Amino acid sequence: MATILKLKDVDDAIAGLGYKNKDTLKYKLVHAIRQCYPDEISTESIQAIDTEELVKKLWSVDGDSELLKSKKKNLSSVKSGINADLKRLYQEGTNAQGIVIGQSNVFDMSDEAKNKALGSIDSNLRDEGTEAIRKITEMLNAVNDILTQSGVHPVSGEGLEQFDRMKDLLLDLSRKMGLSLNDGGGTGVTADSAVAVADIEEVVDEISADAADEEIVEMAADDLTDIRDDPDQSGEMQGLGEAAAPDDATHEGADELLDEVMEADLAAAAVLEEVEVTADLAEVEIEDVLEEQEEEVYEAADEDLREKAEILAELAEAAKVLSQLGPDFRESAYSEEVIREKAKLLSEEFERDLSIRERFCNQHIFIKGGDYITGGNDLAKNDLPQATVRLQEFYIGKFPVTNALFETFVEKTGYRTTAEKNGYGFVYTSRAQRVKDSMTGKETFTWHSHLLYKKIQGACWYHPNGPGSSLHNKRRHPVVQVSLEDACAFAAWTGKRLPTEKEWEAAARTAHGNVFPWGNEWAGNSCNVEKSYIGDTTPVDKYLEFANACGVADALGNVLEWTLDNWEAQKPGEKNTDIHVVKGGSWISDGPVCLSNRYPMDRNTSSNVLGFRCVAI
Fold first, then answer.
1. 64 phi and psi angles, rounded to 5 deg
2. Nearest Cα to 613, choosing from 507, 471, 469, 473?
3. What is the pLDDT of residues 310-338, one digit of tens each?
4. Strand, helix or coil for residue 599
5. How does DSSP classify residue 435?
6. Which residues touch 244 (CB under 8 Å, ≥6 apart)?
7. Considering 57, 92, 109, which residue would you say is the last residue of a domain?
8. Residues facing residue 447 across a β-bridge
9. Beta carbons within 10 angstroms of residue 569's beta carbon
10. Which of 1, 20, 77, 331 has the most beta carbons within 10 angstroms of its beta carbon?
11. What is the separation of C-alpha 13 from the centre of its chain, rounded to a whole number of angstroms?
12. What letter does residue 385 receive in the DSSP assignment?
């Protein structure tokens, strides 16, 4: 049963979230749900919002059942992220009603807020219940006395039946409230003010005593109907004065007595209405407790869910370890075998969350252990001296990590990148750029005298070139505007890590030690560099025909890629504490780029020419 809320409370909670970027999934989802509430009545009438309809509003998935299934999981993760933010606001006091998005995709109160409200009601009943029920008792007895005094009724026939009916209603009302009234026999009036509170507490205590027993839950739900009055009775009582009016006065002073009865009738109707409101509030709170207990029963019975939670807990622990590890496991509290097993489970879990199209970009290539040539002789580009290194077998991403894969990571974890935290990223603009108008298809060519480089406020992974830019038609492009920390976080969460410089170069050059992925001679239109005149990233599989013999693709051009290795200074006294090696060139690279070329990059840098790929051991 949904909790009765005010739209103002919902709007205040949404405003407190501070979601300003309309392109983010969190903004889209919370406002898509809000649009389903046209007026105050809808907060009570709407019991559920269809998940598939919300998925269709956030993603284009019509006709693709596999993608729809995947996006339902993504929707659940986005909703969890929003609820985490809303609960934080509740703790801070800026979400006073504890608004969250419930299981049925409707706005509801959090369990914590419900428990607090129930406690408040219980306290009020304890503190003020005696006096309130005493007054109600006095009013009911006053009406009862009028109807039963001396056993004389001021009317007869149909009017008499109406008076008897009113008396029965009053007796029934008193019974439901736990009160005892005179029945005309002169036995006096008594009231037990603790009965109403005790009845409610008894229901809650009974549920808590054995929540695992579904029959108890059902019985408790049925018993709650005794707390409420039939709403129809209120209407009947309010119309009694008119219905009871006699056609002929049969007793002396009947008119005066009738006036007194009508006044008492109105007073009783007001009391009844107040009691109904109190009962409604109590039932709302108690039924919410019932629903919570039922959910716990179902969860306790779901063995598969418990096992999955245990596995995910182990995987999260493994992710923390993996985020700190390079190829050397001597410092780890886990053995290499254990880490590999945990990483495998974590990687498989991530793979299951992806659609078929995303899995294609998440492929990993097996690199055999053995001897590989690394380094070169181009000292002008900071190449390491050429050498042969021996490496253990490993897997490396066939492609750099794409926007689609990184988006899944963010949706599942709520991760915020360095650029988002800092509020800016670095944006390059190539000297030569071909721009195609998506509306008209017309292409324009722009030329700058030199490469442009600016610090842009608002640039981040989903605004790669700053505000106004987006990931539209870029799901298969490499993710950019990610720092070393961001890359390591993604890698660890998927059960992997970043490659070392030697691993990256060995996988790209293969056992043949090629200068370029496809051989030792530069090939035109083989990769995305400045002379491609694209001036931006391209899909990671655009140059798939130029992948190396092992199948590793897009290793040259497009984006520079992070490695785990610190920069080895070439100049005496040069500091390298926070400087790491990046490989592969990018779409702003001028001239042929060799696989042995290496570049220094501050670990906190986020730019639109910088991405990464992952390694699994």
1. -110, 90
2. 507
3. 555 555 555 555 554 444 444 445 566 77
4. strand
5. E
6. 155, 159, 162, 163, 166, 258, 261
7. 109
8. 432
9. 13
10. 77
11. 15
12. B
Longest alpha-carbon distance in the chain: 125
Is 249 inside a domain boundary? Answer: yes
Residue 570: CA atoms inside 13 Å, Cβ hemisphere, count? Answer: 12
- pLDDT tens per residue, range 491-548: 999 989 999 999 999 999 999 999 999 999 998 789 999 988 889 999 999 999 999 9
In terms of Cα–Cα distance, which of 114, 137, 447 is closest to 282? Answer: 114
Q: What are the start-end ranges of the E strands in 545-605?
A: 560-566, 579-583, 598-602
Round to whole Å and give the CA distance between 513 and 505.
Answer: 9
Q: Do 123 and 104 have their domain in common? A: no
With residue 31 as reference, give the H or E element that holds it.
helix 25-34
Q: Three-state SS across 98-158?
A: CEEECCCCCEEECHHHHHHHHHHHHHHHHHHHHHHHHHHHHHHHHHHHHHHHHHCCCCCCH
* pTM passes above 0.90: no
Domain that holds residue 496: 367-616
Phi, psi (deg, nearest 5) at residue 457: -70, 135
| Same domain? 105 vs 197 | no
Same domain, yes or no, for 124 and 83? no
From the list 102, 24, 108, 10, the residue with the least C-alpha distance to 58 is: 24
**Token pair in block for residue 516:** 């370029």
CATH number for the domain that contains residue 452: 3.90.1580.10
Q: Please check whether residues 378 and 230 belong to one and the same domain.
A: no
Whether residue 312 is contained in a domain is answered as no
* Measured distance CA(480)–CA(46) in Å, rounded: 41
- Span 98-136, pLDDT tens digits: 899 988 899 988 888 877 765 554 454 444 444 545 555
Q: Which letter, b or e, does each residue of 79-107 get, where b requires 16 or more Cβ atoms within 10 Å of its Cβ?
A: bebbeebbbebbeeeebebbbbbbeebbb
On whether both 180 and 135 belong to a single domain, the answer is yes
- Looking at the fold, whether 122 and 98 belong to one and the same domain comes out as no
Residues 424 and 555 grouped into a single domain: yes
Is residue 372 helix, strand or coil?
strand
| Contact criterion met (CB below 8 Å) for 560 and 582 | yes
d(CA 218, CA 221): 5
In a domain, 341, yes or no: no
- Binned at pLDDT 50, 70 and 90, residue 223 comes out as very low
Angle, alpha carbons 141-142-143 (nearest 5°): 90
- CA–CA distance, 129 with 139 (Å, rounded to integer): 16
- The total of other beta-carbon atoms located within 10 Å of residue 393's CB is 10
Whether 523 and 453 map to the same domain: the answer is yes
Total count of domains within the chain: 3
Token duo for residue 87: 């609960």
**Distance from the first to the final alpha carbon of the chain:** 50
- Domain termination site, one of 50, 78, 109: 109
- Helix axis angle for 25-34 and 51-58, nearest 10°, is 130
* DSSP-derived secondary structure letter, 433: E
